[in-house]
Amino acid sequence: MATQWHPPTNLTLLQISLAPPWVPEPNQRGTLSLLYSCIFTLGLCVFKALHMNIPPPDEGRLAFYGRKTKWVLFALLAPEAVLYAAWIQWFNARWLCGQFAQGSPGSLGEQKQDQELITLSQGFYVAMGGIVVDIPETSKIHAMEGLEEVKRTTLGIDEVHTLFLNGYRGFIPSDGDIRDKSKADILAKGLILFQVLWMVIQATARKLGGYPLTILEVHTLIHVACALLLYLLWFEKPMDICAPTIIAGPEAEFILTFLYGVSGPFHHNLELRTYVPNVDEVHGFGFRRETLGFMTVCALYGGLHMTAWSYHFPTEEEKMMWRIACILTVVGTVGAVSARNLLSDCIWKYRREGGKYGRAPMVKIAVELYKKSGWVRRVKWVWTMVVVGAMILARVVITAESFASLRAVPAGVYKTVRWADAIPHF
What we know:
Blueprint: H1 11-16, H2 31-49, H3 61-77, H4 79-102, H5 120-127, E1 131-134, E2 152-154, H6 157-165, H7 175-181, H8 186-209, H9 215-233, E3 245-247, H10 250-263, H11 287-305, H12 316-331, H13 333-353, H14 361-372, H15 375-404, H16 419-422
Parallel strand pairs: 1-3
Antiparallel strand pairs: 1-2
Helix pairs in contact: 2-3, 2-8, 2-9, 3-4, 4-5, 4-9, 4-11, 8-9, 9-15, 11-12, 11-13, 12-15, 13-14, 13-15
């Protein structure tokens, strides 16, 4: 009968000797518990950290969670992009709250000045597409070319700000009503944060004890850090609301008539869209600062993975692939900025004509913009897609290698921490 493998007791051997491809439990830390801890923390953290915008009107509950699952997969490959989207929403919500706090007396709807200030939660509710106006068949909106079939429009940050500047502000639901609709679970978030804290404590204790970490643990800790930032940015954002606040009847006609009158038939301050995408434009922030911040966040993701530059890999080829993938992730931020600029063009068009594109509007708009572009801009589109494709491939390599590297790790990975040694003492 074969004897069960145990990690050596010598600290030097823990760093240089290799463990078997699979280490059973329960006498020491095992491969299964390591996988379970990382996968559970990674998946649940990302899933619970995502706060989706209100979906389109024809999207069912199953489709909503399907879309959220797609964003989970996106967050696992590009967490900094989701973090960027969360920052935009947080900044827009704060910007709107700041505009309400400054105050601006108006002449329109003076009888509705009962709501002078709004909370950050209400600002998020507006930014996520929570205010929807039904468009009556007799509305002048239908005279706008290509928008005859639009039945409703979502009021965004700009429209709500315009109405506020003219003294009309009583249509935003109260903070209590919004929190009542939200599916946020404080207990679930607390348990997840406890799991995250426990993993961070374990990783810290292992480093203090001189025990090595796996590449998977480093990868998980980086995603956990992104998830914690998502929690902070979206802490006041309502979660998983599927039905918006609908304004109908005379009040809807009044709002639409006013906004149409302010924007005029040839201007597009009145933006007809059925819902607000999860990535929107940022208000009140300089383009250069925004671009610099986006590049920094993208570069940090690859840079933090470079902390495993000298870690042990099963083969030299895998180590080289890991290093190239990390470098591509950092250098590819230039392509990410270009992709962000192209995405801004799509958002700009969607914010003004999104009502006529139906489902998957951003994809249709991107195809239309490409077809209408000149050859120089088409080259830019193609170059951007190539760079983004290379970055996606690099992310896949980083994620796959994080798991594949477990088949040959230093023996110290499976050494159980002696907590008495991890506590600083004199």
